[in-house]
């Protein structure tokens, strides 16, 4: 399933406009890390930023807590994969603080003043461009892993897929095994000694089902991508070894369920 050409072109136009604009009080690109990769995996980290947004007051509604060390977990996994294989996932990180902008909410919910729009849109333009690129390079399938932190259980990794909605294409191609089998992301975490939720195949996601990133970009959408939200406990985010486990899980999943590049 290819990215909608109009959507991909719009993302590229927006990136160009953001880069060229001098009307903002800050450079929106300075508040986003966007590193292209060469494997069919995109890692996104919307909630580990610490940077203020010039001209903005803090958000007055919604969750504003930082997902501390989610960035280290994602980048550590990418580093591990690169060291082992010479290949690397795409990585997208919001550097702006969630106190000002929530990139995992709709624009209306995540941005309360116009000053925040350029940074929010820069993040999403990069994500749309990455998705368009992986569709072109990896027609056999790709996955977006949205990396978060949770405080409910320090030793557990929670999965969110909007109860399978955002992985519609993955399930159609490979069935339940790709979501909860031994070579799934969650199956690998379990084998490596981490607690997981949902704990059993077919079990519903209750506590963390995923949010706007999955709604907007999941494979149920035209031109979307299989998308999974991963909520890591404090023990994983504080443990450098957990990034290696994350990298191993991604590698096993890719080998089992994602096609090689053209």
Description:
The chain is α/β, with parallel strands linked by helices. The protein has helices spanning 5-20, 70-85, 107-110, 117-137, 168-174, 177-180, 185-191, 212-217, 234-238, 240-257; strands at 32-35, 41-45, 90-94, 143-149, 156-160, 195-197, 226-232. A seven-stranded mixed β-sheet has the order 1-3-2-4-7-5-6, sandwiched between helices. α1 crosses α4 (117-137), α2 (70-85) crosses α10 (240-257) and α7 packs across α10. The longest helix is centred in the middle third of the chain and has 21 residues, at 117-137. The radius of gyration is 17 Å and the shape is globular.
Radius of gyration: 17 Å
Strand order of the largest sheet: 1-3-2-4-7-5-6
Secondary structure category? alpha/beta
Strand proportion:
5-15%
Shape: globular
Residues in helix, %: 25-40%
Elements, N to C (H/E): HEEHEHHEEHHHEHEHH
Number of strands: 7
Cα end-to-end separation: 15 Å
List the total number of helices: 10
The overall pLDDT average reads 92
Q: What summary fits the major beta sheet?
A: 7 strands, mixed
């Amino acid at each position: 399933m290819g990215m909608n050409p109009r959507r991909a072109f719009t993302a590229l136009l927006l990136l160009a406009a953001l880069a060229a604009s001098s009307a903002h009080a800050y450079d929106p690109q300075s508040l986003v890390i966007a590193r292209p990769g060469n494997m069919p995996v995109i890692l996104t980290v919307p909630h580990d930023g610490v940077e203020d947004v010039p001209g903005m007051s803090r958000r007055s509604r919604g969750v504003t807590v930082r997902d501390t060390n989610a960035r280290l977990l994602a980048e550590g996994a990418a580093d591990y994969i690169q060291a082992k294989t010479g290949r690397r996932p795409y990585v997208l990180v919001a550097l702006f603080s969630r106190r000002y902008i929530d990139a995992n909410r709709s624009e209306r919910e995540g941005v309360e003043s116009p000053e925040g729009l350029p940074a929010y849109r820069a993040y999403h333009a990069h994500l749309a461009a990455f998705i368009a690129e992986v569709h072109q390079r990896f027609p056999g399938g790709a996955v977006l892993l949205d990396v978060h932190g949770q405080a409910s259980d320090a030793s557990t990794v929670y999965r969110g897929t909007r109860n399978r909605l955002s992985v519609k294409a993955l399930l159609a191609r490979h069935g339940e095994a790709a979501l909860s089998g031994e070579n799934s992301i969650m199956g690998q975490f379990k084998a490596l000694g981490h607690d997981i939720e949902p704990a059993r195949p077919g079990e519903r996601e209750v506590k963390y089902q995923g949010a706007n990133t999955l709604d907007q970009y999941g494979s149920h959408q035209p031109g979307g991508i299989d998308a999974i939200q991963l909520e890591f406990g404090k023990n994983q985010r504080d443990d450098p070894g957990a990034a290696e486990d994350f990298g191993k899980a991604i590698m096993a999943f890719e080998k089992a369920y994602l096609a090689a590049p053209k």
